[in-house]
């Protein structure tokens, strides 16, 4: 089971403020936690944090990447009554937004509000039949005029995130909260580097853990991190869509919460390196770690950018099945998280130069 260090880091990471383009708080927490375990801390010029653990050989360079930006919003205007208009940062389904609490970060401090729309009592019968779209919503911060909202410090361009404290349920087995996509992945990279250090595990490579930025708006940090690291192989750590909810066919989202990490066989932005995929499956089976084969037909990850960096990089995505991503409250199983850490550790211990070269040998 996860130790106290892990649970404390998870809570701090998930509750940190950090929508795409505004990840500084989350990045600072990653840096602070990893300074004692990494041999070197690097950054790119977008704000990603890279923490290095040297093994017995400088190469291959093994990149473990998870993004730390969360889906959020940005202030687009304030009307005369003090209601705040917003645009999305990342993908949001309109139906999950109404009546949800949010935090606006201003130069004067954080302002709490709630996403609202025209009251249902005042809708015409025709309006009541329609889904309320984001463009018809606003954030109510309790102001009664534009001046009052501006006096709170709110201005165009201020970032917004869901208000959703981290919580464990089912006797500590299940985590709920915001930003699981994809600080779950960033945490896995952090914990792998920590365990390599504290358990004095030998590995025939150099590991580059990375907390990337701006994934939700175009995999931007993945591109700059890949340029800085120049990896020989990449393991992208993500959440996967848990399909064990009503209305979803197994063929649409095969991963299930509590059944182990998922090995993504393809998604909309990357077909994984096939020898690396088979290597990942073999390692899981040898180490007796439960796993699931998955696919994401209409989504993508940082691997979409990393695998075509420079001359190309053999890449694989390993996911933690997570329910309700891109909402205010996601849900995942801590045992799945722990098994994903174990799987990545076992892979790192086996990724020597000969093995990595075999992934691209013809």
Brief digest:
This protein has 362 residues and is α+β, with helices and mostly antiparallel strands.
What does this structure look like?
The chain is an alpha+beta fold. The protein folds into two domains: 4-70 and 178-358, Zn peptidases (Aminopeptidase, 3-Layer(aba) Sandwich); 72-162, Peptidase M42, domain 2 (Elongation Factor Tu (Ef-tu), domain 3, Beta Barrel), CATH 2.40.30.40. Helix content is 28%, strand content 27%. The protein is built from ten helices and 17 strands. The chain has helices at 4-15, 24-34, 125-128, 146-151, 180-198, 220-229, 274-286, 303-306, 334-350, 353-358; strands at 40-43, 49-54, 61-67, 72-78, 84-89, 101-106, 109-116, 138-140, 159-162, 167-169, 174-177, 206-212, 233-241, 262-267, 292-296, 315-323, 330-333. The strands form two sheets. Strands 1, 2, 3, 10, 11, 12, 13, 14, 15, 16 and 17 form an eleven-stranded mixed sheet that branches. It has a six-stranded antiparallel sheet with strand order 5-4-9-6-7-8. A hairpin with a 6-residue loop joins strand 16 and strand 17. The longest helix has 19 residues, at 180-198. The radius of gyration is 21 Å and the shape is globular. The two termini are 42 Å apart. The mean pLDDT is 97.
Key terms for this structure?
Aminopeptidase; 17 strands; six-stranded antiparallel sheet; 362 residues; eleven-stranded mixed sheet; globular; Elongation Factor Tu (Ef-tu), domain 3; alpha+beta
């Amino acid at each position: 089971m996860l130790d106290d260090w892990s649970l404390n880091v998870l809570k701090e990471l998930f509750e940190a403020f950090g929508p795409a383009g505004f990840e500084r708080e989350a990045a600072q927490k990653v840096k602070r936690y990893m300074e004692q375990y990494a041999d070197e801390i690097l950054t790119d010029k977008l704000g990603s944090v890279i923490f290095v653990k040297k093994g017995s050989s400088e190469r291959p360079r093994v990149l473990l990447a998870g993004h730390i930006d969360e889906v959020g919003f940005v202030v687009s205007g304030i009307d005369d009554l003090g209601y705040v208009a917003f645009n999305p940062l990342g993908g949001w389904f309109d139906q999950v937004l109404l009546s949800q609490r949010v935090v606006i970060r201003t130069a004067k401090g954080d302002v709490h509000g709630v996403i609202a729309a025209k009251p249902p009592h005042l809708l015409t019968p025709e309006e009541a039949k329609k889904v309320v779209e984001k463009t018809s919503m606003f954030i109510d911060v309790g102001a009664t005029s534009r001046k009052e909202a501006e006096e709170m410090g709110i201005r165009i361009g201020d970032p917004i995130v869901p208000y959703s404290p981290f919580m464990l349920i089912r006797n500590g087995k299940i985590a709920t909260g915001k930003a699981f996509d994809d600080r779950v992945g960033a945490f896995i990279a952090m914990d792998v580097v920590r365990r390599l250090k504290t358990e004095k595990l030998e590995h025939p490579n150099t590991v580059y853990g990375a907390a990337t930025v701006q994934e939700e708006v175009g995999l931007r940090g993945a591109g700059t991190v890949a340029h800085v690291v120049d990896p020989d192989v990449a393991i992208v750590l993500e959440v996967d869509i848990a399909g064990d909810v009503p209305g979803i066919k197994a063929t649409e989202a095969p991963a299930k919460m509590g059944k182990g990490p998922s090995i993504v066989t393809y998604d909309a932005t990357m077909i994984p390196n096939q020898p690396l995929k088979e290597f990942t499956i073999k390692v899981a089976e040898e180490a007796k770690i439960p796993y699931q084969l998955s696919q994401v037909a209409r989504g993508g990850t940082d691997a979409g950018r990393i695998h075509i960096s420079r001359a190309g990089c053999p890449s694989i995505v390993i996911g933690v099945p997570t329910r309700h991503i891109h909402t205010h409250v996601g849900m995942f199983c801590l045992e799945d998280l722990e098994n994903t850490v174990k799987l990545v550790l076992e892979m790192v211990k086996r990724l020597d130069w000969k093995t990595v070269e075999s992934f691209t040998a013809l």
